[in-house]
């Protein structure tokens, strides 16, 4: 690692002030990506602003048919939350499948979203449920948040403070995972909402995305058969040593059908 100055702000407001002052610094959430990049000397921030002591960023609360989760809430806490299990069991299930036990006890919701790894699980839940991302400056709808490869709508010194998830009539997440990293080669989150069906795909492209054709078909008939013949083009999908683009395109339909079946309890 290169030398850096370490900060431990007590609140989100303090962290935002530090980020505004140290423009070459980086905000540390769970550290599952940033610390590794620093170890490999792929990142050399002048300052590290550790959100681990910002207590106002931790917690899970329920209001009506919505769950709000603080940005520094660990994956394991979401997995084990009685409120999440009761209102949005698919979200608890997704959190329980992230990485391994150590990752789930260190990684955070806000860190995962701000990093926006193309194979991360949480972006699929946020986009699939139509969640709302709250920052120290504003509120951002899920459809406006994810912009591209490791790119989001967050501005300089803007910090995610919480995410609000609406409950779904039915929802499920399923992924075809890399056996080593447990990241998704393809992951699909499907949710049947009051306003219609949302279906989000992660791991297949440079950024999480929705599949409108599948959403329309599932809105008419929420069954695996209704999307069995819908295929996503491989043109803009990832192709790497783990899976070719056409294989990922095939997996999207397979995983989508399985997610619908899981949502139906089949």
Question: What can you see in these coordinates?
Answer:
This protein has 266 residues and is of the alpha+beta class. Among the domains are: 49 residues, 2-Layer Sandwich (Uridine Diphospho-n-acetylenolpyruvylglucosamine Reductase, domain 2), CATH 3.30.43.10; 97 residues, CO dehydrogenase flavoprotein, C-terminal domain (Enolase-like, domain 1). Helix content is 33%, strand content 24%. The chain is built from eleven helices and 14 strands. The protein is globular, with a radius of gyration of 18 Å. The protein starts with a strand and ends with a helix.
Going across the biggest sheet, name each strand in turn. 4-5-10-6-7
Spans of at least 5 consecutive residues whose pLDDT stays below 50 are: none
Largest sheet: 5 strands, antiparallel
So, the CATH homologous superfamily of the domain at 170-266? Answer: CO dehydrogenase flavoprotein, C-terminal domain
At CATH level 2, the architecture of the domain at 170-266 is 2-Layer Sandwich
CA-CA gap between termini? 49 Å
Class by SSE composition:
alpha+beta
What is the CATH topology assignment of the domain at 170-266?
A: Enolase-like, domain 1
Indicate the mean pLDDT: 95
**Hey, roughly how much beta strand do the residues contain?**
15-25%
Output the helix-strand order: EHEHEEEHHHHHHEEHEEEEEEEHH
- Helix proportion of residues, in percent? 25-40%
Basic shape: globular
What is the count of β-strands? 14
CATH class of the domain at 170-266: Alpha Beta
Radius of gyration, in angstroms, nearest whole number: 18 Å
Query: Number of DSSP helices?
Result: 11
């Amino acid at each position: 690692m290169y030398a850096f100055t370490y900060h431990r702000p007590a609140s989100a407001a303090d962290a935002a002030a530090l980020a505004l002052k140290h423009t070459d610094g980086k905000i540390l959430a769970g550290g599952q990506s940033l610390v590794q990049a620093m170890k490999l000397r792929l990142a050399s921030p002048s300052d590290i602003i550790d959100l681990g002591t910002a207590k106002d960023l931790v917690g899970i609360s329920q209001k009506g048919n919505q769950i709000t989760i603080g940005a520094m809430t660990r994956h394991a806490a979401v997995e084990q939350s009685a409120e999440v299990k009761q209102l949005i069991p698919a979200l608890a299930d997704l959190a329980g499948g992230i990485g391994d036990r150590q990752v789930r006890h260190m990684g955070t919701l806000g860190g995962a979203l701000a990093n926006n790894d193309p194979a991360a699980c949480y972006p699929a839940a946020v986009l699939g449920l139509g969640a709302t991302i709250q920052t120290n400056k504003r509120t951002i709808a899920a459809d406006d948040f994810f912009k591209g490869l490791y790119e989001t709508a967050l501005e300089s010194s803007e910090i995610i403070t919480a995410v609000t998830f609406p409950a779904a009539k039915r929802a499920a997440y399923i992924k075809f995972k890399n056996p080593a990293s447990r990241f998704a080669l393809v992951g699909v989150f499907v949710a049947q909402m009051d306003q219609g069906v949302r279906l989000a795909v992660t791991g297949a492209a440079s950024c999480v995305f929705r599949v409108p054709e599948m959403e329309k078909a599932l809105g008419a008939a929420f069954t695996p058969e209704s999307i069995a013949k819908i295929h996503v083009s491989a043109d803009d999908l990832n192709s790497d040593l783990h899976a070719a683009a056409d294989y990922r395109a095939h997996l999207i339909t397979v995983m989508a059908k399985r997610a619908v079946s899981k949502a139906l309890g089949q």
